[in-house]
Design brief:
Helices cover 24% and strands 26% of the residues. It has 141 residues and is an alpha/beta fold. It has 2 domains: 56 residues, 2,3-Dihydroxybiphenyl 1,2-Dioxygenase, domain 1 (Roll); 67 residues, 2,3-Dihydroxybiphenyl 1,2-Dioxygenase, domain 1 (Roll). The strands form 2 sheets. A 4-stranded mixed beta sheet has the order 1-4-3-2, covered by helices on one side. A 4-stranded mixed beta sheet has the order 5-8-7-6, covered by helices on one side. A hairpin with a 5-residue loop joins strand 6 and strand 7.
Length: 141
C-alpha cells in the first residue's frame, strides 16, 4: 500500500517528462535520413554506448533514438504512434507533400487531415519501418 501511495504522490507532483523515444529500425542510415529530411532534426552524440544507435534532438530538447535491428521483424499499427504538435500545421502538411510523403486521416483517407471533436487537426504518416507518426496543431498557448 505504501508503494502505491508513493507512486500516486509522484504522479500528482507531475514529476515526469518525456526524455526520448526509442525505436528499432532495419536500416539506421535510411531512417536517419528520413527523420532529418522530414523534421529537420540535428544529430547529437550517443553518450550511452559505442553502439550504432543514432540520437537526434527536437527543438524542445526531446530526443528520438534509432536503434539498428536489421534482423528484427517490425510490426506496427496506427493505434501505436507518437504525436508531434506544431503551430505551423499547414506548412508541415505542404512539406510532407513536397517530399512525397503519403499521409492520411485517422480513417486512412489519403491526403486528408482529420479534425477531432475538440477542433484539433491531425494527419498520420509512416516512417521507413512503418512506425506511425501523428502531426497535430494542439499547441497550448
Amino acid at each position: 500500500m505504501k508503494y502505491i501511495q508513493n507512486c500516486i504522490a509522484l504522479f500528482q507532483m507531475k514529476y515526469f517528462t518525456i526524455n526520448h523515444i526509442a525505436i528499432s529500425v532495419r536500416d539506421v542510415r535510411v531512417s536517419s535520413e528520413f527523420y532529418i529530411k522530414v523534421f529537420g532534426l540535428s544529430e547529437i552524440p550517443n553518450t550511452a554506448s559505442s553502439s550504432k544507435t543514432r540520437w537526434f534532438v527536437f527543438n524542445d530538447g526531446r530526443q528520438i533514438h534509432l536503434i539498428p535491428r536489421p534482423n528484427d521483424e517490425i510490426k506496427t499499427t496506427k493505434a501505436v504512434h507518437f504525436a508531434l504538435s506544431t503551430p505551423t500545421f499547414d506548412q508541415v502538411v505542404k512539406h510532407l507533400q513536397s517530399l512525397g510523403v503519403s499521409y492520411s486521416d485517422w480513417k486512412n483517407t489519403p491526403n486528408k487531415d482529420y479534425v477531432r471533436e475538440d477542433g484539433i487537426r491531425q494527419v498520420y504518416f509512416q516512417d521507413p519501418d512503418g512506425y506511425w507518426i501523428e502531426i497535430n496543431d494542439d499547441i497550448k498557448k
